[in-house]
Amino acid sequence: MIAIGVPLAAAAQSNVTIYGTLDAGITSISNQNGSRNTIFATGMQIPNLLGFKGSEDLGRGIKAIFKLESQFGLEEGQMIGGTGFTRQTYVGLASSVGTLTMGYQYEFMFESLSAARLAGSLPYVSLYNLQQGPFQVLGTPYGGLDFNRVAGAFRVRNSVKFVTNDFNGFNAGVLYGMGEKVGSLDTKSTVSAAINYARGPWGANAAYTYAKDASINDGKDGIRNWGVGGRYTAPTWQVDAIYTNTRNTFTNARVGVYQVGADWKITPATILRGDYQLMKGNAQVADNKAHQFGVTLDYWFSKRTDIYTNVVYQRTSGNGQTHAWIAGLPGASDGRSQTALRIGMRHFF
């Protein structure tokens, strides 16, 4: 990362950091249009990001902070999500009590149940390892991709967020995203909260998000998510587990996800990760189910550059449309199973 000192006043200490992540690779997909499909895909193991973040010391233990972050594809340099800073944009204050931010930012299904829970394992969990499956009738945005919001596909616009600092291993946070509908404070709003614990080898996390969507009962209903998880970390391995519950409050369509994973540091530069998950819908989702297995092998050339390979397999069943669909792939399978094999490279700056 490149840190640039920016003096704003004689008595103030300010800095701006420019940072980014790059990911590219080849993915082979089974059961698409009756054949195997091989594609060049980017931003799968980590999103391709370019960002600016900074702070200014205001004295008395208070800092002004900001972040501006965009996402793009390496296929042809295209911006993702529109022009400008489409990933995160916020400004706020940090103190000895906690951090208050305002803008376009993550809620806690991702921040607590992915980033905080997985900690050092997060770099080895790709978009392919996360959730999609045969659950489009849930009514979530993006055709069911990241329906439980742990993949970080969603940010909350017009949001105010507060996260406490750590106290005896605990911290907590709350977020409110304003719907900004005239005459109704609640319509199209988002509420999120979390509590986290980390001490020694143990970590535990719980999060809740209720996002009312304009496409669900005119913004009066939406998708309610909650989840719990944790991890145990040893010098050369880590195990983790999570349960999430996703419900459309208008249709009562619901999917529960049970997931377990483990890492093994074969050498200081070589990490193997495996995980299994069961995604299980209720009657409003035609009792559809998906079993998914994933394995990642990663090798670090340096602290900034690594290569990896993923293998992910999904098998579905149920009474409705049960075409398998691994998260991050361009389309569903022709049948009840789908496999993704990927070889890729990442660089951080």
Descriptive notes:
The protein is mainly beta and 349 residues long. The protein has one domain (2-348): Porin (Beta Barrel), CATH 2.40.160. It has one helix at residues 108-118; strands at residues 2-5, 14-32, 35-42, 49-59, 62-71, 88-94, 98-105, 156-164, 170-177, 190-199, 202-212, 222-233, 237-248, 254-267, 270-281, 289-300, 305-317, 337-348. It has a 16-stranded antiparallel barrel with strand order 2-4-5-6-7-8-9-10-11-12-13-14-15-16-17-18. β12 (222-233) and β13 (237-248) form a beta hairpin. The model is unreliable at 1-11 (pLDDT under 50). Keywords: Cell outer membrane, Ion transport, Membrane, Porin, Signal, Transmembrane, Transmembrane beta strand, Transport. It is a multi-pass membrane protein. Residues 5-318 form the Porin domain. Homotrimer.
Number of strands: 18
**Overall number of domains:** 1
Q: How would you classify the helix and strand content by structural class?
A: mainly beta
Uncertain residue segments: 1-11
C-alpha end-to-end distance: 5 Å
Strand order of the largest sheet: 2-4-5-6-7-8-9-10-11-12-13-14-15-16-17-18
**Principal-axes shape call:** globular
CATH topology call? Porin
Summarize the structure.
By secondary structure, the chain is mainly beta.
Topology, element by element:
Elements: E1 2-5, E2 14-32, E3 35-42, E4 49-59, E5 62-71, E6 88-94, E7 98-105, H1 108-118, E8 156-164, E9 170-177, E10 190-199, E11 202-212, E12 222-233, E13 237-248, E14 254-267, E15 270-281, E16 289-300, E17 305-317, E18 337-348
Antiparallel strand pairs: 1-2, 2-3, 2-4, 2-18, 4-5, 5-6, 6-7, 7-8, 8-9, 9-10, 10-11, 11-12, 12-13, 13-14, 14-15, 15-16, 16-17, 17-18
